[in-house]
Amino acid sequence: VNLPSRRALVIAVVAIELLAIVAWLASAAGAPSALLLVVAAIQVAIGGAVFMELGAAHPAVRVAAATLLFMIALLCSGVASDVAMR
Amino acid sequence: VAIAVAAAARQLPDAAGVDARRVRLPGGVVIEEDAGGAGIVVIEQPATLEAIERAATASRAHAWRLAVWLLIVSEALLFAALFALYTGYRAEYPQAFARGVAHDVQWIGGINTLILIASSFAMAFAVMLARAGRDAAASRWLVAVIAIGVVFVALKLAEWIVHAREGLVLGPSYAGPQELGRGAKLFFTLYFLMTGLHLLHLVAGIALVAWALARVRRGPPSRHVLALELVGVYWNFVDAIWMFLWPLFYLMKGTS
Q1: What whole-number distance in Å separates Cα of residue A52 and Cα of residue B123?
Q2: Which of B120, B230, B241 has the most A C-beta neighbours within 10 Å, making it the best mutation to test the interface with A?
Q3: Exposed, middle or buried: residue A29 (CB in 10 Å: 0-12, 13-18, 19+)?
Q4: B73–A4: do the CB atoms touch at under 8 Å?
Q5: Tens digits of per-residue pLDDT, B151-192?
Q6: What pLDDT shows up at residue B60?
Q7: CB-CB: which of B66, B125, B244 is closest to A40?
Q8: How far, in Å, CA of B179 to CA of B169, rounded?
Q9: Torsional sign, CA B61, A56, B76, B141
């Protein structure tokens, strides 16, 4: 099993911390909400792949994670259509 | 188990051209139904008992990993529903929500985010060390995770106290400043509900890390590596939820 190395963990934490600082600064500069949520999604994707070891997980676990993403995408599209049609 | 497997194998059609009474189990053991109907007999036993135990342990570990991920999926859907609620109300009251976000204690949200990310790293690092058999070092990193968790809880409670002093509380006692506008009550209701639910998860996470720490200090590696790995997945999930709560309640100050 190809588990994350020490180097991968360090790179991941530095990247996520930097993205957090970027989001904080962008918020102070009046960045749009969508951009801030995209940054959050990237942070979670890095954390999921490296810290939660999804990259090396059993296919059954990856299917569970993919199903979660699909359900959240469905929920988001439902909310977006609700807001758009008001 | 062997009897059940042999019974199931017997139901295979004879046309398959295999000896339906003979079954190979994980680990290389071959068993056969006793001709006298008294049970099963072992035909081959090339593998050691350790090999069979290893196969069983791997199977149990997989089942536990899948169970924890299913728990995470269900928890994530709960939070996703609350995010959807937030989005719906924010679309209804964009000004009030933007003012509510700006009213939250920014430095507490920011510091909590930065330390929680550090705790994710500490947790993953502890798991890596435990897998390598370096339990003493893993224990130190787990203590760091617990300490960060406690600081997060303390800062969050401090922020709640600041809000409560301004009248920004849940329910009919809400008496927030008028300039926050209509919808501010909804914003702070969601704020307390979602950050409170996250806080509950974090406190549970601290308890689980403390339990894993006790196991690391007490038992042999074979007994605690999987437990530590699963606690680590849960802890990182709680951190991932905060990655979305932070922009919702501290960063999204505009109405766009």
Answers
A1: 10
A2: B120
A3: exposed
A4: no
A5: 999 999 999 999 999 888 887 788 877 777 778 889 999 999
A6: 86
A7: B244
A8: 16
A9: positive
